[in-house]
Structures are given as C-alpha cells and as structure tokens.
Amino acid sequence: MAGTNAQVAYAQAEGHQCDPLLDSGGLAVRGRYFTIENSLACGQHWTDYITFRYEPTLNRFVFHKRIVETWRLNSSASSNAPALVLSHRRVTDAAQDKPVFLEAYRARP
Fold first, then answer.
1. How far apart are CA 94 and CA 102, in angstroms?
2. Neighbour count for residue 66 (Cβ, 10 Å)
3. Residue 30 to residues 26, 54, 70, 97, Cα–Cα distance (Å)
4. What are phi and psi of 103, to 5 degrees?
5. What are the φ and ψ backbone dihedral angles of 61, each rounded to 5 degrees?
6. Cα–Cα distance between 47 and 69 in angstroms, integer?
7. DSSP 8-state class, residue 11
C-alpha cells in the first residue's frame, strides 16, 4: 500500500501569498525517503520540508521529519551579503514508537 495525502503539498494561495506549490522545489526522492518542499518567497519567505520513509515491515510510508525555516531580508550593507538570512528553524522528528502513516499525516503549525 503506497498511500496518498493531499495535505502534504500545499494548495495554491494556502501560504496566503503567491503560490507555494508552484514556487517550491517540489519533490525529492532518495532510496526509501521522499521529501515535499513547500516554499514561499513573495513578501514572506519560508520553506517547509516534509519527509516520509517507506517502512518495509509495515509496507507503508510513514512520517520521518519536518523542517520549517523562515527567512528575513538581510540588513547588511555589504554588496557580497546574501539577500536573505535564516531567522528561525524548527525541526520535528517522528516519534519512533508511534508511526504516522502518510495518509494520516497532518502538518501542525
């Protein structure tokens, strides 16, 4: 059973500005893991990575990790400074004793 979940990839305007899905990095797959990247860079700047892994013993995809980053404009006057700097990063790891299946996953703010 592969599973699906429309809550993982944000819908148009769900980020309240622009289109977080069309403007994002999309989908990355490596081995038993896949990550959905939701991002927004239009007034606000944030990135939300949600990763799932295939668990062969359960024959299902389970939540693995979520990383949310917010960015702010860099106040540096240097011409070599990056335009944005990281202002906050939050990492949520899966509870190993309570697997959350892909189809049941709900992102919490």
1. 12
2. 20
3. 14, 11, 25, 24
4. -70, -15
5. -90, 135
6. 5
7. P
SS3 state of residue 104: helix
Model confidence, pTM: 0.77
How is residue 46 written in tokens?
């944030």
Return per-residue pLDDT of the chain as tens, 109 residues.
Answer: 456 566 666 554 555 445 544 555 677 889 999 998 877 776 678 888 999 999 999 999 999 999 999 999 889 989 999 988 999 999 999 998 999 999 899 877 6
Instruction: Tell me if 88 sits within 8 A of 63, measured CB to CB.
Output: no
Q: Which two tokens stand for residue 89?
A: 């990063």
